Amino acid sequence: MAEPFVRLESALLSAIPLLNDFEIYPNPANNLLSIDLSEEQSLPESVIISDLTGRIFLYHSYDGSSFQSINISGLRAGIYHITLKFRSGCITKTFIKE
Hints:
The chain has 98 residues and is an all-beta fold. The chain has a 4-stranded antiparallel β-sheet, with no helix packed on it. Strands 1-2-5 form a 3-stranded antiparallel β-sheet, with no helix packed on it. It has strands spanning 22-25, 32-37, 46-51, 56-61, 67-71, 78-86, 89-97. It has one domain (14-97): Sandwich (Immunoglobulin-like), CATH 2.60.40.3080.
């Protein structure tokens, strides 16, 4: 007798197209890091900047527009992650602070 087939879909799969719609620049950056989101997607709830060990250096609520600049002048030179937290999950990209 055949086993019933069940198809499961992850909520994260629906977030995959967001990866193409989230840009950060310039990279490498000096004092300001710009976030540019596609107009078609939902806006994130918050932005987190952390180092490669996960230590958080900046956390703030997103201001409600598809474009935002973040002052990173207080960060030391190095490699960081920027994470956008959405209701459906998180998207993280890496940038370099000069």
